[in-house]
Amino acid sequence: MVPKPTHFDALIVGAGFGGIYMLKRLLDQNLSVKVIDAASSVGGTWYWNRYPGAMSDTESYIYRYSWDKEDLLSYDWPEHYLKQPQALAYLEHVVERHNLRPHMQFETELIGAQYNSERNIWEITTSTNEIFTCHYLVTALGLLSKQNWPNIPGLKSFKGELYHTGAWPKSHSFSNKRVAVIGNGSTGVQVMTAIAKDVGHMTSFQRSPQYSVPSGDGPVSESYRAQINDNYDAIWDQVRNSAVAFGFEESTVPAMSVSPEERRAKFQEAWDKGNGFRFMFWTFSDITTSEEANREACEFIKSKIAETIKDPEKARKLMPTEFYARRPLCDAGYYEQFNRENVDIVDLREEPIVEVTEKGIKTSEREYEFDVIVLATGFDAVDGNYTRVAIRGRDGESLKDHWSEAGPESYLGVAVSNFPNLLMITGPNGPFTNIPPTLETHVEFISDLIANAEKRNPKNDGQVVKGAVVEATRDAEKGWTDVCNQMSEGSLFHKSPSWIFGANVPGKKYSSLFFFGGLKEYRRRLKEVVDGGYVGFKSF
């Protein structure tokens, strides 16, 4: 029996959107590549997030890869938004179509990674007790993958069913059960909207009321699909040369430059079309930068909440009080669910949770009994999956220690100083944009970076050194972090505590985790890096 290889030119951690495309690109460059993933199959986020109502908030026609034109034209997407089973099926289809599965190993979790300076390789330890070595370690861990379990006293004492939306069981039934949902971000909004009609009773435990607009979801007509197919080249060109990359032209009109009647008409048009990013960026150009413009958007959404919810007390609790400056949400009837007699809400600012008991949840006012508790408490976003494992660069320095003082830093969201040949897909300070085009941008930059390094540093025949040392300089890393901080400080997002800045995780340093300049500007800066001979990287 021929032993399985344990050394690869590149090892990719993660078999979601980013890892799949990274594998395809590097195989096309004739490199030996291995993908490992803790899951039992492909999918990444869409493998783990199986909760009711889980769907993309990007329209189906661009929530996919742009690089396979034939597949773009032929693969079916029956509704405007992909639901979790459809998103997972699409990724499985791509893997089979391009015969990528033989290069993947599942139920294999990354435990640790150590850079060996003498051999210029990464040594990888896994949950399967295997040790892999590779020249390039590429992480495709996802922005939202490390579950954020709340630190509530007594959580483990609950005798009923306890679920986190990021690790959902393959089967469940909430029929006639008393269900608590803790959290009301994007995940909470989706799961509550989906299960309200089925449960015996549902109680939402909410800390910060959300601004959410309709999604505009529905069946796709044959004529709509034909129009998309006829214009795919122009669509992708617009996406790559836009700010948020959601498939619409962002507004260049300031909100206060038009009359109140025109403003409301524009907001209404966006409300009718649907999509949170469209409402925030298509209506007016300064919703995220001008407090006055933002207040106008706030008041419009608040008026819709007031119109929708019949119970004045429920409406009061659901009325947002902060800026409209978190990740913009959309829904399939979220506010309408609170008109049901079997749906209630607890405002945690007025009635905080004291502990979880065997029977349910005890607040400062009373104890609620439940059969099921759903934790829609989100994720330790962006850097959480990096700091939970021992990734060590030069001299044994861990990423956790490297980021302990100033928060997570990187160069371009791709590379970290003192960690040679560690290349991250959507690492800290990558673009705050639609995920698939952002992933493609990162994958293409990384694969081209590796191709350039391999061309300049041909492999030798031994096992001691292969290829180049590709490493970001500390000055480049710090400079990029400063750019991201400056951009975020000019945005109202900075004034609204959310997972975008790590505010949802107790004890986590409040810091900018994204580049807020938009995808077009990000791609322009990448081109400058490449045209300058990969400026900011030590190898070049």
What does this 3D model show about the protein?
It is a single chain. This protein is of the alpha/beta class. It has two domains: 291 residues, FAD/NAD(P)-binding domain, CATH 3.50.50.60; 221 residues, no CATH class. The chain is 31% helix and 17% strand. The protein has 16 helices and 22 strands. Strands 1, 2, 5, 6, 7, 8, 19 and 20 form an eight-stranded mixed sheet that branches. Strands 9-18-10-11-14 form a five-stranded parallel sheet. The protein has a three-stranded antiparallel sheet with strand order 15-16-17, with no helix packed on it. Helix 1 links the parallel strand 1 and strand 2. Helix 1 packs parallel to helix 14 and helix 14 packs parallel to helix 16. The longest helix has 22 residues. The chain is globular. About 1% of the residues have low confidence.
Brief summary of the model shown:
The chain has 540 residues and is an alpha/beta fold.
Class by alpha and beta content? alpha/beta
Largest sheet: 8 strands, mixed
CATH topology type of the largest domain: FAD/NAD(P)-binding domain
Specify Rg, calculated over alpha carbons: 24 Å
Q: Identify the overall geometry.
A: globular
Strand content: 15-25%
Q: What is the CATH level 1 assignment of the largest domain?
A: Alpha Beta
Number of helices: 16
What's the CATH H-level homologous superfamily of the largest domain?
FAD/NAD(P)-binding domain
In CATH, the architecture of the largest domain is 3-Layer(bba) Sandwich
Average pLDDT score? 90
Helix content: 25-40%
Work out the number of β strands.
22
Straight-line distance between termini: 42 Å
* Residue runs with pLDDT of under 50 for 5 or more positions: 461-465
Instruction: Quickly count the domains.
Output: 2
